[in-house]
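Example 5.3 — Flp pilus assembly pilin Flp
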Amino acid sequence: MLLRIQDSERGASFTEYAAVILLVSMVAGVVLVSGAASAVGGLLTNALCRVGATGGSSADCEEVSSTDTADSPSTPDGVFTPNPAADPRDNDEGADRRGNVDGSGSQAAPWSEITEPSEEDYEAAADELAEIREYYENPEEHETSLNPLTWFGNTDPARALSRMPQNELDALLWSLEEDEIATMLGDSELREVIMSEAGLDTLRMIRELDQSLIEADTSGTVVRTPSWLTDDLQATYYGDDATFEEGPQESLWGDDGEPTLDDIQQGSLGDCWLLAAAGALVHNDPGAIEDMIEENDNGTFTVTFSDTGEEITVTPDLPSYGGPIYADPGDDNVLWPAILEKALAEREGGYEELHGGLGDTALQTLTGDGRHVENFTPDDLEDWSDGGAPIVVSTQAGRGSLYRPEGDLVSYHAYTVTNVEDGMVELHNPWGYNHPDPVPIEELQEQSPYGIYLNS
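Solution (predicted structure tokens):
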């Protein structure tokens, strides 16, 4: 069966639209009768007040509660504090980066925007389609065949598909059933060929069939509780509702052409341990990050992890709920932190697996070398920093004496060490803002019972 777009799939009938209008009317009536309209109005007023506040002041706004990371679910195996300002729906225009005012999100390439292969492409791929179906129907026969004229006689499907022009590979994939595509993607070698050589429209078509076939699992991950919601109307968004969206004119390294520490903007996922380590690495050796990520001709990216040598290829589309919910490309649309995060989520079995971790684990993953040091002297830390070692420090759980909601050290959080001089430590927050003032080494030791993480 060819996976072609049918006219019947392009829109709803008049009856369906009428039903929707009736449903909206009923909901509006319930809101008015119950008196909930005033509560909703108050919520919106408070939200607009906070969005419109300038200079960091919101004294004229209604008092609201903020996200308290100390009350978040405990993660015994590492730090996890997400970015409390990571609500993707907040911006100056009241709309997200794709102009979606209601923040509901949308797929990066719905059926109406995906370009299907031409009839000529389908015809050109017909022989290969028949061969691959016959191969999967009789795999044992092809594995033992010595006939050099057989398409799969002296090779395997991955090598055969890699020799196909992209337009024919796309047509072949569009011609397959969903279960056939799933079978092919279940083969690691075939998966790499498809992910790195098929067109992005074809990969997005596959995602429309089943998102889990080509994208990292987002289910179970907390997006966050927006700080502007009042105590009696808290809301938490989950990755279950996320879609994958393509950002506007995003680039891997940005205008600088190389990764920088300022590119990192942690989102709602508690992977500060990973992004702080990535920041430590890029601060000391940008080339190491550049060597990890390769942009493919089809617009996907292949990330090579040093701990295992494993290569993971991902699309450029990012989890979104009206805007990016995890590592954010930011105003400069720099992709590498989000691509690194996405590839590790794919490798580990989903974004939820990145929620909480340790700095030495992250450094081991990124460089193949990482260790945990609990006891160290000021001279030790200064020597390691002067020697160019990437260093990550994490703070204790709960609100320590250095924790203040509006600045300085955040509890249960990881930071990049950027400099150690005259007994003072300079730290960089992976949120991309709220960087603490230099901290005396002795106080940092008190607030960081987990010690530090660095390369050997």
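Remark. Residues 244 and 319 are 4 Å apart (CA to CA).
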